[in-house]
Design a protein that fits this description.
Blueprint lengths: L14 H7 L2 H4 L3 H17 L5 H20 L11 H13 L12 H37 L4 E6 L2 E7 H26 L1 E2 L15 H7 L4 E2 L3 H6 L2 H28 L6 E2 L18 H24 L14 H24 L1 E2 L1 H10 L4 H10 L4 H18 L8 H7 L7 H4 L2 H6 L9 H16 L1
Parallel strand pairs: 3-4
Antiparallel strand pairs: 1-2, 5-6
Helix pairs in contact: 3-4, 3-6, 3-8, 4-5, 6-7, 6-12, 6-19, 7-10, 7-19, 10-11, 10-12, 11-12, 14-15
Length: 458
């Protein structure tokens, strides 16, 4: 097939080189953005008198027809084409004749591909933020339902202090709100139009880049043509935001895996999101959560891959930059898949509040509150801390918990103990006493839920 760029070279490349050079197998997913961008380009060219109105109309109608045919499957993409831009221009020329060859006036594939990628990632950004909002809604619902459900809070994976399951869910909600903010901020720098920068130096035609950018929903234009065609910061930033998001999803998945185990039994995942073993009939494997955890490394790799590709490139465009797409496309696909699985998995899981409460009781999570109670009775904290630790040891030796230890035993360690100690070390009391902003009390969790709902409502 004759190459559209044949000129000083004959364009007779080796078939192996053609296959190596082609980007169509992955950039064809940007056909909507490519065609939409081309329609806006034709409108701008006509507005500046570079095309006639008839030429503009023929191009617009032809491009709209190609888009419709691709979406309905009437038109198949020619896999022999070098990239999506060449395919669209080729089909347009076949359908409307020589006028189709004028579409590429005052632009280059360099600024065209940068435009397509920005538009595509803008759309992906919007879709991913929508999926995060759906997950946040589920987390807020879980927190509302379990704002008083007591569970152990951990440090060093050791039982530390009592918290509510709702408070724990809100911790992940706060992480996801930051992810939303990062993606929203990233979108601002993505939403800058490179079209009209051409190959690297601009064009001799009197164009209107601001008009074309406005037609495509951009906030502004790239102010330096060399930067416009070589900038991929927006793709790196998108990958960075997705990597942080996946880190948060992986941490949550890790806890789901732990909590679903027989060692914890804090939750029971739905059959719809677990698998069995080929030889062990008792197994319920949290495979979906494990896959989310595993796919996090995949997204990290895409970020490092693009950073490495870009680190040594001179200005302006280089063919290396063709490697910017597969990684970021895969990362977007992976993140969306993980969010679509995690949200209903959380929504359908059973929270075993009895097991969580029992674990909290057996973990002596009220030991600090016991020491605080003695301090209020007049003991120095270090003395109170030692007595509390000795009482915990006695419980461990006798198979009891602090709530069931007889008062006579308490008084063996200090005459200050009286019957009021039991109310002070009740786990619910311990949890509700955490009244500081952001703490685990039910009132605090309610404020957190309200904040999250307000943020995602905006």
């Amino acid at each position: 097939m004759a190459k559209m760029w044949a000129g000083v070279t004959a364009g007779n490349t080796d078939p192996l080189a053609d296959d190596f050079n082609s980007s169509l197998r992955f950039d064809k997913r940007m056909f909507r953005q490519d065609i939409t961008g081309s329609i806006a380009h034709a409108q701008m060219l006509a507005a500046k008198g570079i095309l006639s109105e008839d030429e503009r109309d023929a191009m617009t109608e032809g491009l709209a027809g190609i888009l419709e045919d691709l979406e309905t499957g009437t038109l198949a993409i020619d896999e022999n084409c070098e990239d999506i831009h060449m395919f669209v221009e080729q089909v347009l020329t076949e359908r409307i004749g020589e006028t189709g060859k004028k579409l590429h006036t005052a632009r280059s594939r360099n600024d065209q591909v940068a435009l397509d990628l920005r538009m595509y990632l803008r759309d992906e950004n919007d879709e991913i933020r929508g999926l995060i909002r759906e997950l946040l809604t589920v987390l807020a619902d879980l927190a509302e339902e379990h704002k008083e459900s007591i569970m152990p809070g951990y440090t060093h994976l050791q039982r530390a202090q009592p918290v509510s399951f709702g408070h724990h869910m809100m911790a992940y909600a706060m992480m996801l709100l930051r992810d939303l903010d990062r993606l929203k901020d990233c979108r601002k720098r993505t939403n800058v139009s490179p079209i009209g920068c051409c190959a690297l130096a601009g064009t001799t035609y009197e164009t209107d880049r601001v008009l074309e950018a406005g037609l495509l929903g951009f906030d502004g234009i790239a102010l330096n043509s060399m930067d416009g065609v070589s900038d991929r910061d927006f793709a790196v930033e998108m990958l960075s935001a997705l990597a942080v998001l996946m880190m948060h999803l992986s941490r949550l998945s890790e806890e789901l895996i732990l909590w679903a185990s027989w060692e914890f039994r804090f939750i029971t995942l739905s059959d719809a999101y677990t698998t069995g073993s080929s030889i062990m009939p008792q197994k319920r494997n949290a495979d979906m959560a494990e896959l989310i955890r595993g796919k996090t490394g995949r997204v990290y790799g895409e970020l490092m891959g693009l950073l490495t590709t870009l680190k040594g490139l001179p200005l302006a465009y280089n063919k290396d930059m063709q490697e910017d797409k597969e990684g970021v496309f895969d990362a977007c696909d992976t993140v969306k898949m993980c969010l679509r699985v995690l949200t209903p998995m959380l929504q359908s899981m059973q929270v075993n509040t009895g097991n969580m409460l029992l674990a909290a009781q057996k973990g002596f999570l009220n030991a600090t509150d016991l020491a605080d109670w003695l301090v209020k009775k007049g003991l120095p904290f270090r003395t109170a801390y030692k007595i509390s630790g000795q009482l915990v040891r006695r419980c461990m030796e006798t198979g009891q918990v602090l709530e069931t230890l007889p008062l006579e035993t308490y008084r063996e360690f200090s005459e200050l103990f009286d019957g009021d100690v039991y109310a002070a070390i009740d786990l619910r009391t311990c949890m509700e006493k955490r009244i500081s902003e952001g703490g685990t009390s039910a009132a605090s969790v309610e404020k957190q839920i309200a904040f999250v709902r307000k943020e995602i409502g905006e």
